[in-house]
Amino acid sequence: FSYFLRMLGPAIGYALASLCLKFYISPTLTPTVGTDDPRWLGAWWLGWIIISIVLAALASLLALFPKTLPRAAVRRMMALERQSSVAKTEPELPASFSDMMRTFWRLITNQTLMCNNLASVFYFLGYMPYWVFMAKYIETQYRQSASTSSLITGTVGLVFSAFGILISGLIISKYKPRARYLAAWNVIVGIISVLGIISYAFLGCPASDNHGALLSNGEIATQQSCNANCTCDYVKYSPVCSEDRSTTFISPCHAGCRQQQYLNGTKIYTDCTCAKPATANDNSSLPPASKLLGGIAVPGSCPIDCSKKFMIFLAVVCLLKFSGASGRASNFLLSVRCVEEKDKPIAMGFGMTMGSLCAFIPSPILFGIILGFVAIGTAFDVAVWYYAKNLKIFDEEVELQEVEKTQEKMVVED
């Protein structure tokens, strides 16, 4: 449930930011521009005030919890009793640098833990960069607005991740599967992620490729015979659409336009040698090209309808976020159960450190080979499945009864 709230938090944060940015940055002033104007400045600071109040209230509630939870205290007492009954016990060493090195050595030589951590590292190393740039990808590939792209990236995807963690946690707590079953599910999640990323290559909107000719290597042919003398190498990106609404050019220069004029208050580019004139079936609101000089182009990309393709893409994204999040609970259980009790805090910190240094920081830099990293992560999940064959995730029924009896005994003595 805590993982569910952690994933739901960013989604609420995006929604709160969207709400706060609808208010002007200075409440005492009356804005002269609307929210759709690029000069609009929203109240970005308002969210921090709301969050600080909520955190202060939650912190006061957390302060009421005891230092040790009852069930944890019982487990610790039982462990001390077992340890005292053994004749030869390992002496507890004081905290030192050598003790830290021995602890790290135990973690590094733990095959299950290392394979599990490496699987997570390669999974996020391959998947995080795409998620970071997904808003811009949706905006350009499916011609969605910036607000819609941010909503899908920051809210829809994270909500499905949150429910994936919640549902998987409920299933694990109810059925208590063995360690190998949990590891096998992580393998399945990795395979689904690889297949999903491959499917993105076939889910694009073909209509968004109306940018003209392509070279043999798939790059846009920016220089053609119709604009060979225009010198468009360093012209900034400013897309224009041909009169027949069939081709989007990078800029008026790439469309071969030599002049511009205003028609009914709308800027149009004329004398465009690369733009095709409209036909009777194009329903163009512009006058025929014969009445103007050469071909015609209008600012902006050509309108396209990618709603069906976009909904399929959105369904795949939600499926991948849901399935990927469903493996986080099992991944966490495998990490904390495959190490000794005294090494659990360090093991959790060690895993987070590996994820930050090896996945979250370098992932945008290594974005070009995304799919290979996800596949490698799946291979490490297979290794976790192999090494977790004798790992016990949940307490046996006898041990649970012993814990309950000890807890009842403590209550009676109190």
Order of helices and strands: HHHHHHHHEEEEEHHHH
Our estimate of the beta-strand percent is 5-15%
Outline: elongated
**Gyration radius, to the nearest Å?**
30 Å
Classify the secondary structure makeup into a structural class: mainly alpha
Classify the helix fraction into a percent range.
55-70%
| Low-pLDDT segments | none
What is the level 1 CATH name of the largest domain?
Mainly Alpha
Task: Please count the beta strands (DSSP E, at least 2 residues each).
Answer: 5
Outline the biggest β-sheet.
Answer: 5 strands, antiparallel
CATH topology of the largest domain: Growth Hormone, Chain: A
Q: Work out the count of structural domains.
A: 3
Widest sheet: strand ordering: 2-1-5-4-3
CATH superfamily of the largest domain: MFS general substrate transporter like domains
Mean pLDDT: 76
Looking at the overall shape, the CATH architecture of the largest domain is Up-down Bundle
Number of helices: 12
Please report the distance between the alpha carbons of the first and last residues. 31 Å
